[in-house]
Amino acid sequence: QLSLLMLRWKALTVDFHQWQARNPEVISTNPDVLLELGKEELQKVKNDLEMVLSTVRSKNKQLEEDLKREQQWYEEQKQMLETLNKMEEEANTEVEHPSTKRELNELKNKVLKLKTYKKELLSALGEFLDEHFPPPEEGENIKKKNSLAEPVVELITLQEILEMLINTLMTTPHEPYITINESFWPPYIELLLRYGMALRHPEDPNRMRLQAYHK
Question: What GO CC annotations are associated with the protein (predicted)?
């Protein structure tokens, strides 16, 4: 439709130049007649221009819609490209370090097995100590109370002493000593020291540590 209007516009332009080249014939000298003829021509030109304007506006609207679709498509492609680049980086990282996750899982499994093994050892140790080294008799607590005239101090078992020594050595290997207090039964302390299971602190006899057999 726009092309047809342009052709019509060109035809009108040609007619205009032809009319300029000709000697116009005076249709009428009556002002009213000339006024009406002028109005008709202006109305035709107005109608033609309105048609051109409507066509241009319609074309602009279509171009705006096309532009919006192109922008949306561009944003979608851009986002897709960013996602693909991120996936490629992650894939490259996994290729560079393929065993990191596997090694971490293996390490976790080893730690879990060690904790289970430690628990089993402590349980077996507890059964052995309960059978061969029973807790101090209540008479020891009563005797201590009568001799010192002080409140009774609950004596701990040999298993509890060993667990304290083991846990201290494992958690703070740089400071493995524990402090000997009144809850430690002296025969148990002498037993551990005599058989080399524990060592006194070289400067403080009230502190001792587990013998580091693993070194």
Answer: chromosome, centromeric region; nucleus
**Phi then psi for 214, rounded to 5 degrees?**
-80, -10
Q: Per residue in 14-72, pLDDT tens?
A: 777 776 666 655 566 677 777 888 888 888 888 888 888 888 888 778 878 877 887 78
Both tokens of 194, joined, read 């005599």
pLDDT at 182: 92
Burial group, residue 140, by CB count within 10 angstroms (0-12, 13-18, 19+): middle
The CA distance from 201 to 179, in Å, is: 10
Question: 87-134, pLDDT tens digit by residue?
Answer: 777 777 665 555 666 777 787 888 788 778 777 777 777 777 777 777
> Which tokens is 52 given?
């051109």
The closest of 166, 180, 174, 161 to 211, measured between CA atoms, is 166
Alpha-helical segments (H) within 172-208: 186-194
The phi, psi pair for 195, rounded to 5°, reads -95, 15
192-196: long-range contacts (C-beta < 8 A, 24 or more apart)? Answer: 192/161, 192/162
Q: How far apart are the first and last CA of the chain?
A: 98
Q: Mind spelling out the 3-state secondary structure of 133-181?
A: CCCCCHHHHHHHHHHHCCCCCCCCCHHHHHHHHHHHHHHCCCCCCEECC
What is d(CA 185, CA 44) in angstroms, rounded to the nearest whole number?
123
